[in-house]
Amino acid sequence: MRMNFVGTFPAYRPRRLRQSAAMRRLVSETQLSASRLVLPLFVRSGRKIRRAIQAMPGVFQLSPDELLREAAQAHRAGVPAILLFGIPDKKDAKASGAYAANGIVQQAVRLLKKELPELLVITDVCLCEYMEHGHCGIVQPSKTGAKILNDPTLKLLARTAASHAEAGADIIAPSDMMDGRVRAIREQLDKGGFTETPIMSYAAKFASAFYGPFREAAESTPKFGDRRSYQMDAGNAAEALREVALDIQEGADIVMVKPALAYLDILHRVKAEFGYPTAAYAVSAEHAMIKAAAAKGWIDERAVTFESLLAMRRAGADIIITYAAVDVAKWLK
Ligand SMILES: [Zn+2]
Fold first, then answer.
1. Residue ranges of the chain with pLDDT lower than 70?
2. Parallel, antiparallel, or unpaired for β 138-140 and 147-149?
3. Measured in angstroms, how far is the CA atom of residue 88 from the centroid of ligand 1?
């Protein structure tokens, strides 16, 4: 914007356009809409199971029957998509549960697509929930600490993505942050005939303390070390743009910035630089902080939630992944 073309007082009085609600709506630049929201859901085996997540009020680990109920409710409220995470019964050193044809996510996807064909099912592709050590890739133990192997992990990720597509997933969302995984997944999908299945990559995913509550939900806390050898350093913005560029070159259709609120500058730069459909993930602690303060009566939950999501939209997010999706969709009605 060229500021020298902007009017000056008293000819220009910005308050003229703030006189009434109708006037303010007329000139509002950014709106929230349920059609932009994605609800993350966690599925585990069993029946009639709703296991509450301590630090995420309103979020549960759900058995497939309960998952279906929750997804139907979201769909009715106007939320167009869910993002599915699986909690397997057994974990091992090669994450076999992640790509098993009858794995928990694969079963859930088939059920959802049969019962709610119009609801978009996005599947998170990662190995951490399925690995006994809780890391997102294959681990090679060494004297100086474990190493997460990049290229051997790609095969397992690609296999997982293909099994999700075979089950009927609408969008594949790799969250592991291994180098080259979007290309590996794109190739595997194309080979299997899924050339039309989009990839939403967690392109700029930061190693963040804001993921704390999620690890309880997905039971994916690493048993040793941390994720800093693959997730990004919080201070790096230029590197985030390179990560996004790489994923786009490798075939990502939608790029994501995660977390959202503490990384709005990244979101803005990604949208401005690439113009690709861009998603923001309002992560577990963002949700937990609002819920906790609201429960104490310290903030207005609805107003703070709206303002936070609006900030993500204003920064450049086309899509917002949020645990508050159903509440927000209902509030917007
Ligand atoms: Zn992971």
1. 1-4
2. antiparallel
3. 14
